[in-house]
Amino acid sequence: MLTRAVSRPTRGPRVPIATATTLALLAWAPVQAQQPSNDDSLQPPDLQAASAPQPKLEQVVVTANRRVEKLEDVPASISVLGEETLQRNNVRELVDIVNLSPALSISVGTQVGTNSINMRGIGTTSNNLGIEGDVAVLVDDIPYSQAQQAFKDASDVARVEVLKGPQSTLFGKSSIAGAVLMTTKPIGSGPMRTRVSLYRTSDHEYRASAALSGRLSDDVGLRLYASKTNFPGMLHNLTNDTMQNGSGGRSFLAKLQWRVTSDLDLMIAPHFDHSLSTGNTAAIIAIDPGVGYLYNKKYTALSNTVVLRGIHIGPWNREIRNDSPTGLESTDRGVGVRANYPFPDGSPLAGHTLTSITSVDNNLSNDFRDNDNIDLISTYYQVDASGKPSGIADPPMLNGTTSSKTSTQEFRLTSPDGGAFRYLIGAWASRNTIYRTYYRGNPFVKETNFTNYLTDSGVLNHAVYANTNWDFAPRHSVSAGLRLNRETNNYSFHTIDSLSSSAPTNVHTGEYYYVAPQHKETAVTGKLGYSFHVTPDVMAYGTASTGNKGVAYDMTSGANNPNVFAHLPLAAEKAVSLEAGLKANLWHNRATFNAAVFQTRFRDYQTSATERFSDGSQASVLYSIPSIQTRGFEADATVLATRALLLNANLAFTRATIRSWDQGACYTGATDCTIPNRLVPGAFLRDASGGSMPNSPKWKLSMGAEYTLPPAAWLPYPVAVNAQWRTQSAVRGAISQDPTLDRPGYGILDLGAHVSDAKGRYKLSVGVRNVLDKHYAVGNVGSFLNFKQTSGPDIKSYGWQPARDAFRYTSIRLDMTF
Fold first, then answer.
1. Among the four 118, 399, 474, 760, which has the fewest Cβ within 10 Å?
2. Which pLDDT score is estimated for 617?
């Protein structure tokens, strides 16, 4: 992360930060306290840095405690990505944020809707929508109800804060491993101005956005933002000459700010997003020698030479053959309303601010997949018990529709920023309902695992919380927080029909309807911290915190089996975390250094896997891992080496492991499957205790530099050049510990440059991503397709899912303000 160099006073004793300024930085400020916009595209450039005799780093503020504070005053490990960093690195999606924050990683599932966010190596490893994410994502204080909502364009974002470790006390139960806070750009403080941004890459990605922002009157401000983006994809589908594993969408956001009275400010912010992601398809990279056949070796049309015709198999293959689309299409619409009431002077609560935040959000998504990964009609070649082909010429497809509706209401009373004792108390209520329909396979071909069902769940949450900070001595402070959460769950599942691949031919499960008893549960989470200011610019701290994530219900196709319901709901997941750290401003505020050590233990970690029951049936079921743990070390530093040279480095060393799990999956090739399966007498599993959590690199490093060249005769404007290097170690590919799914480490170098005119009206940026053209995967696929020979062992093939920047590409961007 690179931080813009500006001049500011050296850090002294704590000074109050006005509540109005706090709200302004959160982009919801009352008009009388509106600060100049930090949207550099809508404001003239800051020329003070060029003339200041003592250049210094820009002060970084965070909202981890629901009030704006200087980063060095908050006893927690937090990474902040400012607007310039986001713009310099062309951040569009969550994966771009992950690339800049070593504490974050992503687990890529078979479908985009099952991707998950990991913090310090911990995230949801299940493809079940009934399990909440472990990392919460909030935009302007409003949380996403489902993790899949985060995998879209991050529109009009001004700042991103990555809060590490359990954040349940202030941000709710879905932040048991951490939280990502996004703040959108504020309304401009002057007349209406327009910004247009255009972006294009050599591999055909484009982005276009426009923002109109400013004051309509002394009492009314408005910001409008619209964008359209598209990236065709990383894989070439030879069957229809299209690209796959791409993404894009269109967004519209608005903010209307109205000073109703001198003491009441109102902000209304509607939004609309439509996104289409065509992942997560894999391409074949290796296959055993020989010729084999899929499904039925009597029919040569399904030999591997025909199935893979035209595909140049190799380690970095990007060619596929699919006859059905794969992806996730999602539409999200909603509105947030925030009211701020600063209590007037003379009242008993003078200096306090009462904030009300109301939100309503509707999300409709459809996930679909080519279920056999080939472009031949495989169902036609399935055979019944007599050995005759099915005669069905329909491609096996997967389609699932999810409709979620979320409403929230929060009230917060915030004390003045000044003084030795500061506090915040709040009340929270939310209602979230999810309706899921799912259709997979063909009802007449059991090998397609035909399933047709609908399910719904409802969660009602009520919570009260408080957070305090007390400077009880000149250099000593304590912080404490507590949250009481009451959750009520409703759940039902309706199997319309299903045909298991293990069932006798055409013997259907039939219709089944299950309504779970209403479940109610109360949880208490808290945090306690101590900080010591060694000097006014150096602070050491220690914290302890707890987290709690609610119970889980099965909302996948595996729940068509009555055996599943006996294990529901899955117990709530809990966490206990310890952290110690150091924060310092050095060299007269020309350098910052932050470091932390941590350990977090999770109990009853929620995940899922396919199980076979004692009656011979099988289903994907939820289950808990008794204990997992993450611990490690994090450090980041920023140095303004000279007026023109800015350096930064971020490092995370993480060991995320399974502490106790004697019912681990028995993957193909495992030789230690000796633990009796508790669900299936006579079957065995393996003890996976001591194993690694998936998609959790042991170490991850990011380093960057920016150098501003002085104006020259050939170019009268300053030119800035930048470089960013990120690298990470190998990762375990699956929680089953299957070594064939492990992925090697990699290192990626990006270069860029930008130039702008003296008035800040135009800015031209160019870049080269993955300069060294180092290829790497976000997901590996073992046993991609298995071909049966007429005699001998099966012929196995393997696949990979390349990352967005797994191949070198160039970019150009133009920002215009008028």
1. 474
2. 66
CB atoms within 10 A of CB 235: 23
- Contact by Cβ (8 Å): 735, 694: yes
DSSP-derived secondary structure for 531-551: EEEEETTEEEEEEEEEEEE--
User: What does the block give as tokens for 765?
Assistant: 């940026």
How does pLDDT run across 728-785, given as a tens digit for each residue? 999 999 898 999 889 999 999 999 999 998 888 999 999 999 999 999 999 877 767 8
pLDDT digits (tens, 9 = 90+) for 565-600: 888 899 999 999 999 999 999 998 899 999 999 999
Domains of the chain from N-terminus onward: 5-424+437-491+504-610+617-660+691-817 (2.40.170.20)
Q: Cβ(227)–Cβ(302) under 8 Å?
A: no
According to DSSP, residue 51 is labeled: H
SS3 232: coil
Residues in Cβ contact with 712 at an 8 Å cutoff, skipping those fewer than 6 apart: none
CA distance 492 to 555: 9
d(Cα 426, Cα 356) in Å, to the nearest integer? 10
In 3D space, the residue among 451, 732, 519, 559 whose CA is nearest the CA of residue 129 turns out to be: 559
Q: What are the two backbone dihedrals, phi and then psi, of residue 568, each rounded to the nearest 5 degrees? A: -105, 150
Q: DSSP H helical segments within 418-490, as ranges?
A: none
Which strand (E) or helix (H) includes residue 99? Answer: helix 94-100
Tokens 């006579």: give the residue.
682
Q: Please list, residue by residue across 486-506, b when 16 or more beta carbons sit within 10 angstroms of its beta carbon and e when fewer do.
A: ebebbbebbbbbbbbeebeee
Alpha-carbon distances of 467 from 72, 166, 288, 323, 449, rounded to whole Å: 18, 15, 60, 55, 51
| β-strand partners of 403 | 364, 435
Token pair listed for 157: 């974002």
Q: Report which residue type is found at 227.
A: S
Query: What letter represents residue 621's amino acid?
Result: V
Give, in order, the Cα–Cα distances in Å from 207 to each of 151, 184, 311, 331, 337: 17, 18, 31, 19, 29
| CB 778 within 8 Å of CB 802 | yes
Please state, in angstroms and rounded to a whole number, the distance separating the CA atoms of residues 243 and 376. 19
Question: In angstroms, rounded to a whole number, what is the distance separating the alpha carbons of residues 442 and 323?
Answer: 16
Report in angstroms the alpha-carbon separations of 589 from 20, 58, 671, 679, 702. Answer: 26, 9, 57, 61, 22
In 3D, which of 205, 329, 182, 147 has the Cα closest to residue 767? 205
The count of other CB atoms within 10 Å of the CB of residue 681 is 8
Backbone angles phi, psi at 24, to 5 degrees: -65, -45
Please name the residue that has the structure tokens 């009211």: 339
- pTM (2 d.p.): 0.89
Q: Where are the alpha helices (DSSP H) in 312-381?
A: none
What is the DSSP annotation of 117-135? EEETTB------TTSPPSE
Sign of CA dihedral 732, 733, 736, 738: negative
- What is d(CA 118, CA 135) in angstroms, rounded to the nearest whole number? 7
Residue 79's nearest CA partner among 192, 159, 184, 195 is: 159
Task: Determine contact, residues 637/591, Cβ cutoff 8 Å.
Answer: yes
Beta pairing, strands 235-237 & 319-320? parallel
The HSE-up count of residue 314 (CA atoms within 13 Å, CB side) is 8
DSSP state, 495? E
Backbone angles phi, psi at 20, to 5 degrees: -60, -40
- Residue 238: strand, helix, or coil: coil
Amino acid sitting at position 334: G
Give the C-alpha separation, 251 to 222, whole Å.
17
Q: With CA atoms as reference, report the closest residue to 688 among 711, 709, 659, 713.
A: 659
Share of the chain above pLDDT 90, in %: 60
- pLDDT, one tens digit per residue, over 285-332 is 999 999 988 877 676 778 899 999 999 999 999 999 999 889 999 999
Asked whether 134 and 124 are in contact (CB, 8 A), the reply is: yes
SS3 of 740, please?
helix
The residue to which tokens 């170098």 are assigned = 749
